[in-house]
Amino acid sequence: MIEGLERILAASGQPALGELRSALRLALGADACVAGIEEHALKSRVYRLRFEVDGVTRTVIAKRLEAAVARRCELLAREWLPAVCLEAAAPRLIAASEAAGGWVWHVYEDLGEDTLERRPEGDRVRVANEGWTRSASSACMAPRTLSM
User: Would 68 be classed as within a structural domain?
Assistant: First the structure.
């Protein structure tokens, strides 16, 4: 069991923190040695969490979602985007909590500040648009059955 996770967002008033901590154990490794926990609110239900895990800095994004929205986001990340070769187009979903009180916590890889939204510059936008266009075209040409 990872020590120190009981402090994660303890003062935040967020619901389902036990489930978040279970998801973080999955994301970080149940036997990992974790120290130096930092948290930073990005939005009302989105947090950047920084850990020292076995001597290596790891940063993840924890996001609290309504259960139905979380299910669609999980399908998107784990099935729909990979089905059209677009899994690299979004942050990787590392872990998802069990639902509690209608809420689910998702733990995503942290892309940091270097996102297309923050730096929509020439070549980056062109490459992103070309990738989406190519993938959308191939998805239309060879449709697959996607679960819901």
Answer: yes
